[in-house]
Design a protein that fits this description.
Bound molecules: pyridoxal-5'-phosphate
Radius of gyration: 17 Å
Order of helices and strands: HEHEHEHEHEHEHEHEH
Strand order of the largest sheet: 7-6-5-4-3-2-1-8
Oligomer: single chain
Distance between the termini: 25 Å
Strand content: 15-25%
Number of helices: 9
């Protein structure tokens, strides 16, 4: 078994245990494998271990990797439909390749970005799934919408024709303290429930990374984004 396959198994066991602690069905939580900085071959290893959903942060790297993975899978005659999620910061002049190459975007934080993604989504593709990124810890350096502005942005995005609004995403301030982790995720959960009361179709709460997945699952995450626990330590020099 490859190291990536082993790591995936360990992550899934941890998901299972974390769900069990709070009496949740693990099937209601999706695992997104965050492959940023890792080569196409690492993605292929994860695919061979059954993983189909992948997250990327850097557009140029991501588009090259998506094309390379497609061609490697075609060579191996592996027929599987991968689902690519864009989870990184978005510049407004870079929306077109995102609209063309991804099935999901988690990091929408202003209406202008959403409008461009909707306009640029190719006609033949299904609507682009989007989450609004929330700056839940109120850090000046972090992207995301302040919690008090989330609902208004969600209502505006909901009206856009080529987008399918799914929910909220956050990257809280890093903390190793489980209580602190839970506090940020609990805030997200309550915000999500307030939005759901107005927009009942919302079904996605994208939160939890390698260091805080247990707390995120305890507070209702429906999609965890796991990088280093699957692929290893990142080397940004690559
Ligand atoms: C890198 C990244 C992740 C994965 O982080 P790990 O700590 O390696 O699991 C998840 N979400 C976002 C937005 C990221 O940028």
């Amino acid at each position: 078994m490859s190291l990536i396959a082993k790591n995936l198994q360990v992550v899934k066991e941890k998901m299972q245990r974390s769900a069990q602690i709070v009496a949740r069905d693990v099937a209601t939580i999706e695992l997104l494998a965050v492959s940023k900085t890792f080569p196409a071959q690492a993605v292929i290893e994860a695919v061979q271990a059954g993983q189909t959903c992948f997250g990327e942060n850097y557009l140029q790297e991501a588009v090259a990797k998506i094309l390379e993975v497609d061609s490697l899978l075609a060579q191996q005659q592996t027929a599987c439909q991968l689902v690519w999620h864009f989870i990184g910061p978005i510049q407004s002049n870079k929306t077109r390749p995102i609209a063309e190459h991804f099935a999901w975007v988690h990091s929408v934080d202003r209406l202008k970005i959403a409008q461009r993604l909707s306009e640029q989504r190719p006609e033949q593709l299904a609507p682009l799934n989007v989450c609004v990124q929330v700056n839940v810890s109120g850090e000046a350096s972090k992207s995301g919408v302040p919690p008090e502005d989330v609902l208004e942005l969600m209502l505006a995005i909901q009206a856009l024709p080529k987008l399918r609004l799914r929910g909220l995403m956050c990257v809280p301030e890093a903390s190793e303290n489980p209580e602190q982790q839970k506090a940020a995720f609990a805030h997200m959960r309550s915000l999500f429930e307030q939005c759901q009361a107005q927009i009942p179709v919302l079904d996605t709460l994208s939160m939890g990374m390698s260091g805080d997945m247990e707390a995120a699952i305890a507070e209702g995450s429906t999609m965890i984004r796991i990088g280093s626990a699957i692929f290893g330590k990142r080397n940004y020099a690559n």
